[in-house]
Amino acid sequence: MTITITNRPEKHRYEAAIDGQLAGYCEYNLLTNAVMFTHTEVLPAFEGRGVGSAIARHVLDEARAQGMPVIPACQFIAGYIRKHREYVDLVRPETQRAFNI
Q: Which of 33, 63, 79, 91 is the most exposed place for a label (fewest CB within 10 A)?
């Protein structure tokens, strides 16, 4: 199983697909100096296959590659960062406490 993740800037979201079918997505807002992740959802038919984690890893790696700090307003992304401490440095220091990071 291959999960393909594509940025859809016109929809303000990253979409994950499996075999060409939408499996999940992560919505975001681009701010002046950061990217705010607002909502992540895995479609019920694809739950339990690692889609959410693949999305989180991808969006955080892409933010790092672009030098963009992140604001994890999405509870899934915030939880992923809490479990995967290698991404804590991406969270703006002034927002780490607000999201319990």
A: 33
Domains and CATH numbers, the chain: 3-96 (3.40.630.30)
* Cα torsion angle, 83, 65, 25, 5, sign: negative
**Treating both helix axes as pointing N-terminal to C-terminal, what angle do 51-66 and 75-83 enclose, rounded to 10 degrees?**
80
End-to-end CA distance of the chain: 32
DSSP-derived 3-state class of residue 80? helix
Q: Which one, of 42, 28, 41, 32, lies nearest residue 72 by Cα?
A: 28
| Residue 100 scores a pLDDT above 90 | no
Enumerate residues 6+ apart whose C-beta is below 8 A from 65.
none
pLDDT in tens, 66-88: 999 999 999 999 999 999 999 99
Taking the C-alpha atoms of residue 73 and residue 57, their distance in angstroms, rounded to an integer, is 16
